[in-house]
Design a protein that fits this description.
The structure holds two protein chains of two kinds. Helix content of chain A is 2%, strand content 51%. Chain A is mainly beta. Classes of the chains: A mainly beta, B alpha+beta.
């Protein structure tokens, strides 16, 4: 079992706490003039996303979390699970709705996603930063309005709803920033 | 723990980890550093305190279980032997005091393994000085004078707090009588996250409360001297016996940052030997290295070191206060990541 000493703590390090994998967000070393030193860290739970603070005695060791990122291709959804494939080994894996999180709203078959694996199983899925999706439904809006101001809701082929400018119509392809959930531009095939 | 340096400052607390050849400190800050050193030297020259130099690498090391030395090796007559980089010039300077040099000061680099953070760097600049014949009260006045001058703030207020008052007033616990369990309970009530899974001794719990609950309020808009520590935290200070025995030790805080640690110096060779031995026992118990204690210091104390007081002040932190830096890297030319 790999472990880390508090001396090795830094942002991004993956550790196990109370059975869950965490990533260190911030590490603060505190020490009185003489005496016991502490590492006061902010950590993000990789399952829930929740950020908490925790103090360790400096020099203590913590179990390392077997967490790493890999690129995988999204294949299909069977109604309950999302299926992915490693493009090198062709190995397939399934992710549940919790692991999918927001990514479920954005991805289409064949999209390549960043998959975070914990002990070899998908822990979280990150959609590509930008995706191109077709609008399946939006109000016709006002003809001649090209300013982009105001906007209207549009439903996309994946079911996600984003605000788009009034001039964008049903059946068009648009580019969306999945990190903010915002319309970027119209797109060509 | 918001980082006012803004985004992209690096989660480890340091600057961009892609180490650059450029200095971390601005040219203006490096000029301020030079001015601070000149100012400190002028301060002591005016007062007839002698500047000295002592070895940075030594054949003995600090025994304090909470301080770890960096070790290097020297090849010389008799083969290779370890040399310990000083964690403080204290022992060698005390030998100069015992040799009768009178008041002395030193500006030097010191080294501590495992210490890195916003206020810590494995190599830092210490100003240490000794005043034979002075009480630690008088030395605290001189510390305040030096700091007021270094900051160009002659009117900066001074506050004295005893360690016991601080814990009684702010936390309602008596650090002399509270047992580890009640100190742990206090940490839990204060919401110190992770306290429930810490294994600490009495002094460890006091250190947790001090660093997490009390230090953030110390030295706000004033120079705060925290003094008279529990005898178990005497380090190298004399213990004043009495109804409540106290270690005649002080720490000096400015804007929640500890800048200096001083003692009414322990001059008794027998008591000093006992503290070395207690430190080494604690080290063995913790599975830490047990470096050789400084026998030459014990010999110097046995020969007779004048009673007096001494203090070590972190010059990098004083410079941080002067230029308003949040992170120590902002006052260092080349922090460890680009050293």
């Amino acid at each position: 079992m790999a472990t880390y000493s508090t001396n090795e703590f830094k942002g991004g390090l993956k550790i196990m706490l109370d059975g869950d994998p965490y990533t260190i967000v911030e590490n603060e070393f505190v020490k009185p003039g003489k005496g016991q030193a502490f590492n006061r860290v902010r950590v993000r739970n990789l399952k829930t996303g929740r950020v908490v603070e925790k103090t360790f005695k400096s020099g203590d060791t913590v179990e390392a979390a077997d967490v790493h990122d890999t690129e995988m291709q999204y294949l299909y959804n069977d109604g309950e699970y999302w299926h992915f494939m490693d493009p090198q080994s062709f190995e397939q894996m399934t992710a549940d709705a919790t692991a999918m999180g927001e990514a479920a709203k954005w991805i289409k078959e064949e999209d390549v996603c960043k998959v975070t694996l914990w002990n070899g199983q998908p822990l979280s899925i990150e959609a590509p930063n930008f995706v191109v999706l077709e609008i399946t439904e939006t109000d016709p809006g006002l003809k001649g309005d090209t300013s982009g101001g105001g906007g209207k809701p549009a439903t996309l082929e994946t079911g996600a709803v984003v605000r788009v400018p009034l001039f964008v119509q049903t059946g068009e392809l648009i580019k969306v920033d999945t990190r903010t959930g915002e319309y970027v531009s119209r797109a060509k095939e | 723990m918001t980082d006012p340096r803004g985004p992209g400052a690096g989660a480890s607390g340091g600057p961009d980890p892609a180490a650059s050849w450029r200095p971390a400190a601005s040219a203006q800050t490096l000029r301020e550093r030079a001015a601070l050193l000149a100012n400190v030297r002028a301060f002591f020259a005016e007062r007839g305190v002698l500047e000295v130099e002592t070895p940075i690498a030594s054949r003995s090391a600090a025994t304090d279980p909470a301080i770890e030395s960096l070790v290097t090796h020297w090849s010389g007559p008799g083969g290779q032997q370890p040399l310990y980089l000083q964690t403080s010039p204290e022992f060698r300077m005390k030998r100069l005091l015992a040799a009768g040099l009178g008041p002395v000061y030193q500006i030097c680099k010191v080294f501590r393994d495992g210490e890195r953070g916003r206020l810590h760097h494995p190599e830092f600049t210490l100003l240490e000085w000794y005043r034979p014949g002075w009480s630690y009260d008088r030395l605290m006045e001189e510390v305040a004078e030096l700091v007021r001058r270094a900051l160009d703030q002659p009117g900066l207020a001074i506050e004295h707090l005893t360690y016991r008052e601080l814990f009684l007033d702010r936390l309602g616990v008596d650090p002399w009588s509270a047992d580890p369990r009640s100190l742990r309970d206090k940490a839990l009530v204060l919401g110190i996250s992770g306290a429930e899974s810490l294994t600490l001794d009495r002094d460890g719990w006091l250190d947790l409360l001090l660093t997490h609950a009390l230090e953030p309020g110390l030295g706000r808009g004033r120079l705060t001297f925290l003094r008279d520590y529990p005898p178990s935290q005497a380090a190298l200070a004399r213990v004043r016996e009495g109804e409540v025995p106290v270690a005649e030790r002080f720490e000096f805080y400015l804007e929640a940052v500890e800048l200096a640690n001083g003692f009414q110096e322990l001059t008794d060779a027998t008591a000093q030997r006992a503290r070395f031995e207690a430190d080494l026992r604690a080290r063995r118990g913790l599975g830490l290295p047990t470096p050789p204690a400084d026998e030459a210091l014990l010999a110097a104390l046995a020969a007779g070191m004048p009673e007096g007081s001494g203090v070590a002040l972190g010059l990098d932190r004083l410079l941080m206060a002067r230029v308003g830096a949040y992170h120590i890297d902002a006052v260092l030319a080349f922090p460890i990541e680009r050293a």
